[in-house]
Amino acid sequence: MGRGVADAIGVQVRSARNKHGLTVAKVAQLTGLSPGMLSKIENGNAFPSLTTLHALSRVFKVPMTYFFETYQETQGCCYVKKDGGLFIESRGSKVGHQYQLLGQGVGTEVSVAPYMIELNDTSEVFPLFQHPGVEFIHMLEGEVVYQHGAKQHHLSPGDSLFFEGGTAHGPAKLVKLPIRFLSIIMEPGRDNNGHR
């Protein structure tokens, strides 16, 4: 991950924190991060995990794509070459979950974030997520039991799942590795003042 991406995310985190009138210590408390780690993220010296970005997006009430907006400005179109998206790997002793942001920032009515998600390690704990809007998943490889609320769905290559993002969801059981699926998150857009 290039330094430019970390810098851009840091700028957005600091901007959102200042807009909300929150201290580093308060945001750290709300997200479970240490104040030192939050400072490193704001200064572009550390790249946050997807779980950290998710926690920050909930505190600031913005979609996760907000943190990438100053990195990749778009004019109604976002082109990403193969293996050219922003890669986000989970933090931990073993790297087993990889997210690749395939594009963002197109349009203002709806915020759309397409991800290619790869799961290669059963030892990592996978959190359940909640976010505004809806999500579409299309399985490409492997098998997974995907949970949405109280229901579980066994997904194989070619299967799709389209659901409300506000209900807790995520992989419940990694059945056949490696697992690869396309995830498209669509959230209400924001106006130029950051309001939905």
From TrEMBL:
UniProt domain HTH cro/C1-type: residue ranges: 13-67
This protein's GO CC annotations: cytosol
Which Pfam families does the protein's record reference? Cupin_2, HTH_3
**Record carries keyword Metal-binding:** no
Record keywords, A-Z: DNA-binding
Q: Name one GO molecular function term.
A: DNA binding
Q: InterPro entries of this UniProt entry? A: Cro/C1-type_HTH, Cupin_2, Lambda_DNA-bd_dom_sf, RmlC-like_jellyroll, RmlC_Cupin_sf, TransReg_Diox_bact_type
SUPFAM superfamilies the UniProt entry points to: lambda repressor-like DNA-binding domains, RmlC-like cupins
Protein name stated in the entry: HTH cro/C1-type domain-containing protein
